[in-house]
Description:
Elements: H1 2-16, E1 28-32, E2 35-39, E3 58-60, E4 68-69, E5 84-86, E6 94-95, E7 108-110, E8 132-134, E9 142-143, E10 156-158, E11 166-167, E12 180-182, E13 204-206, H2 219-228, E14 258-265, E15 269-271, E16 278-287, E17 291-296, E18 299-300, E19 306-310, E20 316-323, E21 332-339, E22 344-352, H3 364-407, H4 416-422, E23 425-431, E24 434-440, H5 443-446, E25 453-458, E26 486-490, H6 556-568
Amino acid sequence: MALALVFLLTLALAFAAPDWTDCPSPCHCKWISGKKTAFCKKQGLTQVPAYLDEGMQVLDLSQNFIPKLPRAAFQSVGLINLQRIYLMNSGIGEVHKEAFKDLTILVEIDLSNNNIVQLHPQTFYGNERLRILYLTGNPLRQLTQAQFPVLPHLRNLDLERCQLQFIHKDAFVHLGALETLNLKNNLLRNLSEATFMSFAHLKTLLLEGNPWRCDCELRGFRNWFLSSNLYSVSLLCYEPEILADQRWEDLGSSEFACVPQVFAFPQQQVQAEAGGNISFGCHVLGDPEPKVSWLFEGHSINHTWLVIEAEEGLPDKWANITVYNVSEIDVGVYTCVAKNFLDSVEVNVSLVLPEVVTATTLSKSDTTTVIWWGIVVISVVLLLSTVITITAMCCARKRNHAMHNRNMQASVSFTDQEKKLLDVSIATTTDRGTGSSEAIGPPEMDMMLEPPVHITIEREPLPMVVFPPPPEFSTSTLPAGAYGNIFISVSVSRDPNLVDISRCPDLLDLPHNRPKPVYHGMATLPRRPPAPIPKYDNMGPRVTAGGSSTLSLPDAAAAATANALVSAVPDDAPILTELPPTHPTNNKKPPLCVPVAQEFVSL
Length: 603
């Protein structure tokens, strides 16, 4: 009764527990060969599924798209009991070196036909029970030193169609238990026999489908491979052309040879001293050992003074040549020729003598001529430099003189008639940057002339427009300079106590009853502008205030100056509209006036 109860309880628990075979879609789980197997093949997965039972032993993720396997890709989802993992054609391009971390009972990994370019040497570290590893169809291209970690139970390694071009001689050093190695259909041209010396249990080595270059570098591996009986299919030579498509076993060991290589020593051109000795040579490589000979200008050397030496019995050799008592007949091209049954190779060495340089020397007479020509050339250059310097200085002096003359005012001369009329001496002054002449009466005349008269003849500022005088005034006795305005200044008394104004009736009628501000100013009455053609008026000759007959016609600049002066006089300032009593045309004796402040009235 008790046993029946236990049985029923166990059966109830079994039916109540979830079934591992009911794995979620899209995977299918079932027993295969006594193993819990999850089939997730061709289901569009991009990573290892995380919803599988942790007791799964076989996982098939083939033909999905999983770009990379990250660190602990299977351990992180609880799949630590996996024994076989199939990832064929899954688009894997990167495998983390700890992708298979903690999978201690893993025995088989199939990564065939993915895009793995490089494997870290520690990628399968810890998977010590691994027996089968498929890397077929991945573009690995090369296997570096110690490419795989210690895998003491690895028996089968498949590297077919991995585009391998180079395999380091110690690439499989940690795979001592390897029995089968598949290297078919790669790009291998050469292998070293030392690569497989650590395989004590190697039974099958598949090498067909590679472009083998049957030369001296492959000879050692060829001899080892044929003597080991590891091949099942004959291997064919791809290069050189004379051995193409021939089976390895049909060729002798010596036929796996290398074309000679020749290098000139010390260089391809050597220089010797006439009468001296010179040695040069060539460095020759070749297997089998090539035969070396020398040619001179394309012909065999039979000179008794040449010595040819060679070091025999080495993989590479030196062939030296020595020329004694070098002369012109030894100069030329020497050719070193190395030849074996495969090919003949040569290199040229040129022997030259120092060039004799001849120079034409000058005789004493030629040297003297050259010196005289040098003196003449230097003299001409110095003369031209002096002339140019003097010319430049003269031009500069002329310019300075011209500018100085511009700044200087023209002199004024008077005839006897003018002196009688004026009887004054002319003193030249410069007023505000313009040329002017000021005439002041002599001291003895100061006692008689009150108020004193100041006559200022002001020249136009530069540049000025000079108008020619009328024809009747064009005489040689006239002053050379052209003048603008003529200012006549008269000093009058403004003493308020002076009530007698009859002394100066024709100058100013100044009221003295009430004081007014005194204005000092000048006003210029503009003259009538001259007719355009001819440039003078029709009023006839006139005599200026200075007694000169020089025609003074103000131009446009002078008229503008006069207008400016008129506008500068205040409205209530008295303006002189008549000639002062001291004018030379007035016959009256000038009255005696007490001079005080001066007022300049310009005409």
